[in-house]
Design brief:
The protein is α/β, with parallel strands linked by helices. It has helices at 33-41, 82-90, 95-101, 110-125, 145-153, 172-185, 205-216, 224-258, 268-271, 277-308, 319-326, 336-341, 346-357, 369-372, 375-382, 399-417, 433-445, 447-458, 464-486, and strands spanning 20-27, 59-65, 70-75, 128-134, 159-164, 192-197, 387-389, 395-397. Helix 8 packs antiparallel against helix 10 and helix 16 (399-417) crosses helix 17.
């Protein structure tokens, strides 16, 4: 099927009923409907406050459209005092008709007014009802759910439950357990057709695809074809964003491979550790120069990712953290010492390097010198995370350092890709531990590919476009593998 170009804003036209699919977003008041709407729409709509009944009227927004089809989202006022409302309705022969015929003053009884607006939208406009719940509390604590489910049952529209306020991204096992818990809670209501996790603050585009697939199963037959086109347009837009993000990371990492600093070669005396003050100073200056350039690229790439994902805000400079914490940069190192000691360092040195690579040690302040018994040993030990001479005789980041930069780039992508616009302007936050585990495992799987990409630029002196193609290929593999691991059911 030929894909039509998706659009984010509605032109001045009216789609036919068969080509328009309408979703009504409804929940108990103050559950985060407008916040989620902003995340899905990728733009600011409505008003967001930590207070009940902020949204007073039904507001229509175009989620996505093609040249003929439109997916529309209604943000409705929240249900108010559901229990009191249900008691009133239960006294009537035709509760919904009675309820909608009332003209309560929204200033004297705002909960009932808001409930009236929401229910009117569901009855008149919705193809599918999106019922948002606060998953930050156990299902049994949400005492308003039975009353609101009975009210929705009278309308007769299919309901998809969305779990919001789930907290930071969880591992697939934890997320699935949460979904199953809420699914069991809604099992008595046969009009509830599914439960999925879609947090306004921490959702990923892969979850949005899963959301669209869940909707497709609920669309009435007459609108199936239109929705299929809309779903594919949504997916196409997300894939384009993902590919654009991987291209940005590849550009950042290619520059890291090609980046270098001019430092003279050591004299024979310097190579054996004598009178190294001058060459150490040159190495330190080269390392500082490369670290600053690396930080500038990271800042630029992060800001580009933020814009690509239709977010607001800017990343902050992080060169200090990069050099001191993430990369364990040593103070004084000569990569040439490795060749001198390599023949007699023995198994002890290899064991220390293995410990170091697993994150068990740091370099700071020469703390490892005493453990090795000689200053030269420290140079050899930390060489693998330092600078190496390339075929152009300049100093470059080592292959291990390049892998570490790739790891941070992947974690940065995940942070931006999961940051919902409803959360506000971009801000850095701690990455979930399972992200780190997954990224580490994926990079280990593609370690040879990463080394080949690094070698092409540092050791083989390939042209920049050749290096970029090599880096792009492995970055795309890693990005896809990371998402596959984080969202195996998608």
């Amino acid at each position: 099927m030929m894909q039509r170009s998706p659009k984010m804003s509605a032109p001045n036209r009216v789609a036919s009923v068969a080509n328009m699919v309408t979703l009504s977003l409804i929940s108990h008041t103050n559950a985060g409907k407008t916040t989620l709407a902003r995340t899905l729409l990728r733009r600011d709509v409505g008003e967001v406050q930590d207070a009940p009944h902020v949204t007073l009227f039904n507001e229509s927004h175009t989620l996505i459209e093609t040249s003929e089809e439109t997916l529309r989202l209604w943000d409705t006022p929240g249900f108010g005092d559901s229990t009191r409302l249900l008691k009133r309705l239960q006294r009537e022969k035709n509760p919904v008709l009675w309820f909608l015929s009332q003209a309560w003053d929204r200033f004297t009884d705002r909960p009932l007014w808001c409930s009236q607006q929401a229910l009117k939208n569901v009855r008149d406009d919705a193809d599918i009802v999106l019922y948002l719940v606060n998953a930050g509390e156990p299902p049994e604590v949400a005492g308003y759910i039975p009353a609101e489910m009975e009210i929705l049952s009278w309308v007769g529209k299919p309901v998809l439950v969305l779990l919001n306020q789930t907290g930071p991204p969880h591992s697939p096992t934890i997320e699935q357990a949460e979904v199953e818990l809420w699914t069991e809670h809604f099992r008595p209501y046969d009009f509830v057709k599914g439960v999925i996790s879609l947090d306004a603050f921490a959702r990923c585009w892969v979850q949005e695809d899963r959301f669209m697939e869940a909707l497709e199963a609920l669309v009435e037959p007459a609108k199936k074809l239109a929705f299929e086109t809309l779903r594919m347009a949504w997916h196409q837009r997300n894939v384009q964003t993902f590919e654009g993000a991987m291209k940005l990371l590849a550009e950042q990492l290619t520059a890291a491979v090609l980046d270098g600093a001019d430092v003279r070669d050591e004299t024979l005396m310097e190579r054996v550790g004598i009178r190294r003050a001058e060459i150490n100073r040159e190495y330190n200056e080269a390392r500082q120069k490369l670290a600053v350039q690396m930080a500038e690229r990271a800042e630029h790439a992060t800001n580009a990712l933020i814009r690509l994902h239709d977010l607001e805000g800017l990343a902050s400079r992080t060169e200090g953290r990069f050099s001191a914490e993430q990369f364990h940069t040593p103070e004084k190192v000569s990569e040439s010492v490795w060749s001198i000691l390599g023949s007699f360092a023995g198994g002890a040195m290899g064991g220390l390097i293995a410990d170091l690579k697993s994150g068990g040690m740091t370099f700071g302040g020469g703390a490892l010198l005493g453990g090795l018994g000689a200053g030269l040993g420290a140079y050899a030990l930390i060489r693998s995370y330092n600078l190496v001479r390339g075929s152009d005789d300049r100093l470059h980041w080592s292959s291990e350092h390049f892998r570490e930069q790739t790891r941070l780039a992947m974690l940065c992508y995940l942070a931006v890709a999961h940051f919902g616009r409803g959360r506000g302007s971009w801000q850095e936050s701690e990455q979930p531990q399972h992200w780190r585990v997954v990224v580490d495992e994926v990079l280990e799987r593609y370690a040879d590919d990463l080394d080949r990409a690094w070698t092409s630029g540092v050791k083989k002196k390939a042209m920049p476009d050749v290096v970029f193609r090599s880096v792009s290929t492995v970055v795309m593999k890693c990005g896809r593998a990371v998402l596959d691991r984080l969202y195996p059911s998608a």
